Amino acid sequence: MSGLEISEIQVIPVKPKEGLVAFASCIVNKALYIGNIAIYTSPSTQEGFRLVYPVKTLPNGKEINCVHPINKEAGEAILKEIIRKFREVILKATG
Predict the structure, then answer these.
(1) Which CATH number does the domain 6-94 belong to among 1.10.3470.10, 2.40.50.180, 3.30.1120.40, 3.90.1150.10?
(2) How is 34-87 classified by DSSP, letter by letter?
């Protein structure tokens, strides 16, 4: 998908629990901020990680997706850049 720019990526590692290893945020095309993206380990994927986008849970228990990519190309572009930044942050932390 040409023209999709992922910038200002922030990654906050967390104590690993049930595959969750970090949270991330980014800006897409200098126009859309996406926060609270969970990063989970996923050995079955090529990258070794998967992203879980924010969901709002209503009082009745129903979940509503707040934001998520609507096509494979966008999802892969966001995943690639967030995981690149995640690896950079982990490398700095472990020195």
Answers:
(1) 3.30.1120.40
(2) EEEEEEEE-TTSSSSEEEE--EEEPTTS-EEE----SSHHHHHHHHHHHHHHHH
